[in-house]
């Protein structure tokens, strides 16, 4: 079967993980610099997004179900899609987008080929992960994003309606320095594995940055050697044609080496290292969901602690040991306040508070438990996608190295045969 260039959103094999309902293949390609319209003078980069799917809803305006749907989107469009998914699916791990301005692993301006090609590959990773997610892949906004020819109108219709949940943001800030009192062994193990994976990926990332730099240097050295051999060939021409011919043949092999290292380096820099960085960010996205799960549990634990304090205070008042301190009691006596009536009033208020807190605690418990179960499903899905991505990425890495050595072997076998003749 020929390679179409599409990244296929294949169903997950694990029975414990829900499968996407439809096949969804998305290809991001052809980054092009475009000038802004009359409302904005700034330029931007447009990406071609091609979609192939068996979902009939995608083909309402298409001639047949086999049509490839093509739209053009800019980075801000994908950022809007990301924010909508983040807002609509708080219990899902939303795949990360590349940084808006400059990647830490990219040199040069945002319109350079290096920048746009790497961002294109990173955007491909984002949409592939969304396509492989059983919930996100069925999102209505995703279909509009991939199909609509009037996306700008859709953007304007959302102006002012997409809001961040301020309550959750405030809670996250307030609980930033708090930890869960009773973290389950399952989540302790998940965090340990996640941290270890993140550290290992970061190490590999640094190693391949050095590999790319070394390959670039080798390519440049061979290119310089080729230039010197060409000069030698010109010196020999006319005086020793046979030697000139052999120098030319050898130089062709050197040129192939230079091009080979350059192409291999380009693949590593434009794709493999981008995959590593995107995986680091994906791990971080999973960590953010776990923090949100912890926040729900912290809310429950603090509410439980507050309820226990109220119950203890009521019990102490009933037994005669609670209430205000000695000086407060004396002041109330001088003021003519009936101590027994005041005590009963406090007990009644505490009983009302305890009743209210008990209901809130039950609700908080249900929310925390439900969020934990959804988080476990997302972690299982993350593990499936991460394993497949690593397998594909390492397989592609091996294929490119095999291709490099096969080409070099073929080139130098020809050089050797020519020199011996």
Automatic annotation (TrEMBL):
One of its GO terms (biological process) is autophagy of mitochondrion. InterPro entries: AH/BAR_dom_sf (IPR027267), PX_dom (IPR001683), PX_dom_sf (IPR036871). One of its GO terms (molecular function) is phosphatidylinositol-3-phosphate binding. Pfam families: PX. It is found in: Cytoplasm; Endomembrane system. The keyword Lyase does not apply. Belongs to the sorting nexin family. This is Sorting nexin-4. It comes from Zygosaccharomyces bailii (strain CLIB 213 / ATCC 58445 / CBS 680 / BCRC 21525 / NBRC 1098 / NCYC 1416 / NRRL Y-2227).
């Amino acid at each position: 079967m020929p390679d179409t260039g599409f990244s296929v959103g294949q169903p997950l094999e694990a029975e414990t993980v829900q499968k996407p309902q439809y096949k969804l293949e998305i290809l991001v390609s052809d980054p092009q610099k475009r000038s802004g319209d009359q409302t904005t003078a700034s330029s931007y980069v447009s990406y071609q997004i091609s979609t192939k799917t068996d979902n009939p809803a995608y083909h309402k305006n298409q001639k047949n179900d086999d049509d490839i749907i093509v739209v053009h989107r800019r980075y801000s469009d994908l950022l809007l899609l990301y924010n909508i998914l983040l807002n609509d699916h708080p219990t899902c791990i939303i795949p990360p987008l590349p940084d808006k301005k400059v990647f830490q692993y990219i040199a040069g301006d945002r319109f350079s080929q290096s920048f746009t090609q790497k961002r294109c590959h990173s955007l491909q990773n984002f949409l592939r992960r969304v396509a492989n997610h059983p919930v996100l892949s069925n999102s209505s906004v995703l279909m509009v994003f991939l199909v609509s020819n009037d996306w700008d109108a859709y953007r304007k219709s959302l102006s002012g309606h997409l809001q961040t949940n301020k309550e959750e943001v405030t809670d996250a800030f307030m609980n930033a320095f708090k930890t869960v009192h009773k973290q389950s062994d399952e989540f302790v193990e998940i965090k340990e594995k996640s941290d270890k994976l993140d550290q290992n990926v970061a190490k590999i990332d640094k190693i391949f940055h050095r590999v790319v730099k070394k390959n670039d240097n080798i390519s440049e050295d061979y290119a310089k050697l080729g230039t010197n051999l060409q000069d030698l060939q010109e010196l020999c021409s006319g005086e020793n044609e046979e030697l000139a011919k052999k120098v030319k043949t050898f130089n062709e092999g050197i040129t192939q080496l230079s091009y080979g290292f350059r192409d291999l380096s380009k693949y590593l820099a434009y794709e493999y290292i981008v995959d590593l960085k995107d995986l680091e960010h994906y791990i971080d996205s999973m960590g953010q969901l776990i923090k949100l799960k912890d926040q729900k549990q912290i809310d429950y634990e603090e509410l439980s602690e507050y309820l226990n304090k109220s119950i203890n205070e009521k019990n102490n008042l009933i037994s005669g040991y609670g209430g205000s301190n000695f000086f407060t009691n004396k002041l109330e006596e001088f003021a003519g306040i009936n101590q027994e009536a005041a005590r009963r009033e406090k007990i009644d208020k505490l009983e009302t508070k305890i009743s209210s807190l008990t209901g809130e605690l039950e609700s908080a418990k249900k929310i925390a438990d439900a969020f934990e179960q959804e988080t476990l499903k997302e972690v299982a899905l993350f593990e499936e996608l991460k394993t497949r991505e690593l397998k594909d990425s390492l397989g592609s890495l091996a294929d490119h190295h095999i291709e490099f050595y096969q080409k070099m072997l073929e080139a130098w076998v020809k050089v050797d045969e020519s020199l011996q003749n």
